[in-house]
């Protein structure tokens, strides 16, 4: 299958960065683009959510929350097996238990261009999955220790930028409803892909910078950063089948479980777990796992979802 | 021109510390401060501000010598172990001493 042009923008950014090109987008543009993407994703989810809210959704949300607790635990065991020390293993595990909204935006675009439907309340799951892994990671590192400032941490986590934007969009979309949101619709229809393309160009440039640090950490980190998304995708897809999600929904939950955070978690952990080496986590999630998911992972997870359904799961 | 000497404390550190640092300065009674974004390279490698958590800030505080030393001791105890941080003191002359 031909690569989606938005993915080519990512490859372009990656190559430009690796060639040490002068190309650099202003940091404020990256901020703007990510705000637009998150709001658009939230709005779209909110509009649809208002149309099809159900009690079943509550149960599904609970299961997704459990997924957010289980994923970092698995990542932690895997990292300890690869002989990472406890603090760093816990920090990296927190990144991999949480999700990447950028990856989610790409899978949304991928589903749209493949013409595959999915449960429209998926953005809600993105918000739910962001949180628990951070708490699990901190507890894995320090236990429930008294020197963690939980109040400050709570503010950092629950009022973080991406969660606020997603939830804000969801609520506005749900209140406005399909008719009133019409003038804003281009945000998640015709404008979505152009914005995503610029966003991925910048992500390519950033990822190339992180790749440079890989030499420092070597094969152990590389193997974890490639193994964990595959394992996460499998667990996410199986859970989605258990929840009775559609083909598109299964592939999306698999992608979410495979993705690793590079915004919310690094910021929270830098303050809550300063002993951990931040560039270890960023190199893995931004330098390896994000490109892997964008270039190879998403089509693979869709194939996985198709296979599971064909087997009657 | 009547000039009065005060101490300029400059702190260069990770941008992620900004909120905590401002809270500390308020608590220690600093009369004011100026924060700017910064980038550079040092013991912790290049910090080129390409990514949120990789940015640096430079905090400048003009105050009495005694307070500057108290702030430095506090920062050293709290942050030197785990964060990228540099502090230095220098003497400056100010025009309105009552403000510092």
List keywords for this structure.
heterodimer, A: 313 residues, mainly alpha, Na+/H+ antiporter like fold, 14 helices, 79% helix, B: 100 residues, alpha+beta, Alpha-Beta Plaits, four-stranded antiparallel sheet, two-stranded antiparallel sheet, 2 helices, 6 strands, 40% strand, globular
SSE arrangement:
The complex is a heterodimer of chains A (313) and B (100).
Chain A lengths: L4 H14 L8 H26 L2 H27 L4 H12 L3 H14 L7 H9 L1 H11 L7 H9 L2 H20 L11 H20 L2 H30 L3 H12 L5 H9 L5 H33 L3
Chain B lengths: L3 E11 L3 H11 L5 E5 L1 E3 L2 E3 L8 E8 L1 H15 L5 E10 L6
Give a description of the structure.
- The complex is a heterodimer of chains A (313) and B (100).
- In chain A, α5 crosses α10.
- Chain A is built from 14 helices and no strands.
- With 313 residues, chain A is mainly α.
- Chain A has a single domain (5-16, 26-310), classed as Na+/H+ antiporter like fold, CATH 1.20.1530.20.
- The mean pLDDT of chain A is 91.
- Chain B has 100 residues and is an alpha+beta fold.
- Chain B has one domain: Alpha-Beta Plaits (2-Layer Sandwich).
- Helices cover 26% and strands 40% of the residues of chain B.
- Chain B has helices at residues 18-28, 65-79; strands spanning 4-14, 34-38, 40-42, 45-47, 56-63, 85-94.
- In chain B, strands 2-5-1-6 form a 4-stranded antiparallel sheet, covered by helices on one side. Chain B has a two-stranded antiparallel sheet with strand order 3-4.
- In chain B, β3 and β4 form a beta hairpin.
- The radius of gyration of chain B is 14 Å and the shape is globular.
- The mean pLDDT of chain B is 89.
- The interface between A and B is medium-sized, with 14 and 12 residues.
């Amino acid at each position: 299958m031909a690569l989606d042009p938005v993915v080519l923008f990512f490859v372009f950014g990656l190559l430009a960065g690796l060639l040490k090109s002068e190309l650099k987008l202003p940091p404020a543009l990256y901020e703007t683009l990510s705000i637009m993407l998150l709001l658009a994703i939230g709005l779209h989810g909110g509009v649809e959510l208002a149309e099809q809210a159900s009690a079943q959704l509550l149960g599904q949300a609970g299961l997704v929350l459990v997924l957010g607790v289980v994923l970092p635990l698995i990542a932690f065991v895997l990292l300890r097996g690869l002989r990472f020390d406890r603090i760093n293993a816990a920090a990296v595990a927190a990144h991999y238990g949480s999700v990447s909204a950028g990856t989610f935006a790409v899978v949304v675009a991928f589903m749209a261009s493949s013409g595959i439907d999915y449960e429209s309340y998926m953005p809600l799951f993105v918000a739910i999955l962001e949180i628990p892994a951070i708490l699990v990671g901190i507890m894995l590192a320090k236990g429930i220790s008294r020197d963690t400032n939980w109040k400050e941490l709570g503010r950092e986590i629950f009022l973080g930028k991406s969660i606020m934007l997603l939830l804000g969009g969801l609520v506005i979309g749900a209140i406005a409803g399909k008719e009133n949101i019409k003038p804003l619709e281009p945000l998640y229809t015709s404008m979505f892909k152009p914005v995503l393309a610029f966003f991925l160009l910048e992500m390519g440039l950033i990822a190339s910078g992180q790749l440079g640090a890989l030499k420092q950490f070597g094969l152990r980190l590389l193997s974890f950063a490639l193994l964990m998304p595959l394992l996460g995708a499998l667990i996410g897809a199986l859970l989605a089948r258990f929840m009775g999600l559609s083909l598109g929904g299964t592939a999306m939950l698999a992608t979410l479980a495979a993705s690793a955070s590079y915004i919310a978690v690094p910021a929270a952990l830098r303050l809550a777990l300063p002993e951990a080496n931040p560039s270890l986590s960023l190199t893995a999630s931004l330098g390896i796992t994000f490109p892997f998911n964008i270039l190879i992972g998403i089509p693979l997870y869709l194939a996985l979802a198709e296979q599971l359904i064909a087997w009657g799961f | 021109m009547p000039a009065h000497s005060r101490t300029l404390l400059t702190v260069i550190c990770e941008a992620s510390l900004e909120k905590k640092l401002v809270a500390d300065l308020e608590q220690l009674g600093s009369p004011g401060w100026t924060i700017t974004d910064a980038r550079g390279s040092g013991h912790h490698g290049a910090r080129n501000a390409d990514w949120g958590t990789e940015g640096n800030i430079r905090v400048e505080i003009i105050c009495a010598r005694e307070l500057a030393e108290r702030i430095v001791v506090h920062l050293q105890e709290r942050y030197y172990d785990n964060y990228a941080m540099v502090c230095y003191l220098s003497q400056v002359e100010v025009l309105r001493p009552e403000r510092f």
